Amino acid sequence: DMKSIKFYLSFLVFFISFASFSQYTDVINSNRPGVSRSAFSVGTNVIQFEVGPYILNEDHSQLKREDKGFGIDFSGRYGLIWEELELNIEGTFQSTKRTYTNTVANEETLSNFKTLTIGAKYLVYDPYKKTEEEKPNLYSWNANHKFKWKYLIPAVSVYVGGNYDTKDNPFTAYGIEGFSPKVMVATQNNFVGGWVFVMNFIKDRIGTDQSDFQYLLTLTKSINSQWVVFGEAHGISSDFYADNLIRFGGAYLWSQNFQLDTALTLNTKDTPSVFGLTFGASYRLDFHEDKEPDNGTE
Fold first, then answer.
1. DSSP letter assigned to residue 231
2. CB 3.0-4.6 Å disulfide test: which of 103, 112, 206, 219 passes with 181?
3. What single-letter DSSP state applies at residue 146?
4. What is the DSSP letter of 105?
């Protein structure tokens, strides 16, 4: 329809004008609905909140244990000084009712932060930065949309942060307490046709008895200017816990600064089996100011 055509045209004009010097986009750029992190920042002077209440049920066949959890994951993101730099705080708080099925009326309730992390992400390589020779061909749709091998080169960012775990946290390994480092490499490919592929490689709680290695592979497809769908593979490996999770769902762009989303999480084992459902939202306070491009005498 005409409304969608006008949206795409306005977005194209915006992208041609500003992609050469800014990561900022005219619509909100959220890490949700998946769990992986984008390689790009939110843009300077943008404050962004992303939050998602969820239910998580886990049934452990060997331990004869059922966990019915309710929680909320949240993040606050802020673009500071440089377009490439983002500061963020992230966390997950969960309350779980645990029942042991091999005994009578043996229940307990556990509540704590599963994660609480503060850190910084910096974009070290951006292949989408337009050079003078790479400006869009305004006369050829095919020239702008045909596949190019350089599209396989992703944007790359690095993340360094610190976790904080309280003493006797029921969601961590025994003895985990205080601060521990977390590092991540995030890559992102933006393909023609609305496809985006993100990879995260994470080393978490470094130096502790729960030093997780995690990977996330997320493929997102925009259906139109408001709807996107996604699928995600999430691997976790440590002496404390290992799993391979699968997520899928979608998001709806309510306005340029507000997004709603939902996702389903499953796995393929029974130690424990996992079923999770989340409904989330992302909102940004946009104080970004565009720099004036230097056009010389043209």
1. E
2. 206
3. S
4. S
Chain segment 230-247, per-residue pLDDT in tens: 999 999 898 777 788 999
- Per DSSP, 72 falls in state E
- CB neighbour class for 280 (10 Å; exposed up to 12, middle 13-18, buried from 19): buried
Instruction: Show the tokens assigned to 109.
Output: 């309730």
Burial of 92 (0-12, 13-18, 19+ CB in 10 A): buried
Q: How far apart are CA 203 and CA 208, in angstroms?
A: 11
What secondary structure letter does DSSP report for 268? S
d(CA 188, CA 190): 7
Task: With H, G, I as helix, E, B as strand and everything else as coil, classify residue 57.
Answer: strand
The greatest distance separating any two alpha carbons of the chain, rounded to the nearest whole angstrom, comes to 83
d(CA 86, CA 77): 7
User: Distance between CA atoms of 216 and 119, rounded to whole angstroms?
Assistant: 18
Dig out the tokens for 54 from the structure.
């969820």
pTM assigned to the model: 0.82
Residues 6+ apart with CB under 8 A from 149: none
Angle, CA 243 vertex, CA 159 and CA 229 arms, to 5°: 70
pLDDT tens by residue, 87-115: 999 999 999 998 887 776 678 898 999 99
Give yes or no for a contact between 275 and 265, defined as CB atoms under 8 angstroms apart: yes
Q: What is the mean pLDDT of the chain?
A: 84
- Alpha helix ranges (H) inside the chain: 2-18, 141-145
Cα distance between residue 186 and residue 253, in whole Å: 24
